[in-house]
Amino acid sequence: MADTVAQAIREAADTLGEASITPRSDAEHLMAHALDVERSDMLLRHMAKTPPAAFAELVRRRTAHEPMAYILGSQDFYGRSFRVTREVLIPRGDSEVLVERALAAMPGARNVLDCGTGSGCLLFSCLLELPGATGVGIDVSQAALDVAGGNARHLGLTRGQARFCLADWTMPGWADGLGGPFDLILANPPYIEADAPLEPSVRDHEPHGALFAGPDGLDQYRVLVPQLPGLLAPQGRAFVEIGAAQAEAVMALAGAAGLAALLHYDLGGRPRVVEMMQQR
User: Fold this and answer.
1) Burial of 140 by CB count in 10 Å (0-12 exposed, 13-18 middle, 19+ buried)?
2) What is the pLDDT of residues 246-268, one digit of tens each?
3) Are residues 247 and 221 in contact, defined by beta-carbon separation less than 8 angstroms?
4) 210 partner at 20 to 30 Å CA-CA among 53, 67, 129, 280?
5) Could you give all domains of the chain from N- to C-terminal order, each with its CATH number?
6) Looking at the DSSP assignment, which residues form a beta bridge with residue 271?
C-alpha cells in the first residue's frame, strides 16, 4: 500500500500501462478525482498526503478499460464540460467539426433539431453560439434525455431555449409536435458496422444502441436522410456525422432524397460530416 499520493500515482501508472496509452495522465486525473481537487492543485499541494481509499477502485475500473469520461463523470467538448454516463456516447473531438461547420453555414439559425441528442453536446454547443435560437433534442433513450437535461441546466439553458422529446425516427409520426420546419438539423446517428472490431473501452462500455447500425453501418441513414426534406425549412441545412468510409453512400442517399450534399473533413483529414440542403 502506497504511503503517499505521489507513490500511489506511480504505482497506478505502472498498473495502467496495458489499459491506457496515457497511464501517468490517467493516474493523476483519477487521484485528483478521488481527492476532489483540481489536478494542478493536487500536483502542487497534495503529493505528500496519504492517498484516499477510493483511489484503488478508480484504478481498478480504468484497468478494466472503462473510459476515463465515465469514471470522472464528464468530458470536455467545444470548450465546455458535459456530464456523461454509460447511457450516452462520450463526446469526441472529431465531432466538433460538425458544430463548426453548422455555425459557419447557419449563423442566423433560430430553430434547431438534434436527432439522437445523447449528452446534448451538439445541440447545446450550437445553441450557446446562436443568440435567440431555440432547439429540441430527441432520443430513443429516456436515460439519455435525463443526462441531456442535466447538461442543459448546468450550462444555463432554460426550458424555453432547449427542450427534449422521447422519439424514434424509425416510427411513423415521430416528428409530430416537434415544432418544425427547422433551420438547422444536427445528427450523429449510430453508424458502426455490426461486426466492426472495436477497442474494449468502446465495445464493453458505451451504449450499443448508439453505436451499431446493421451490417454496413448505414441502416439509420437509410431511414433518417429521406425524411430530412420534410423537416428542413426552405433555406435550412442538415449536418450529419458519418463514418470514415461512408461518405459516398450517405451522399448518394441525400441525392436520392432530393438534397444537395457537401462533404467536410475532420482535423485528421477523414470524411466526417455531410452537409445537406434543399436543391435550388
Assistant:
1) middle
2) 999 999 999 999 999 999 999 99
3) no
4) 129
5) 5-64 (1.10.8), 88-278 (3.40.50.150)
6) 265
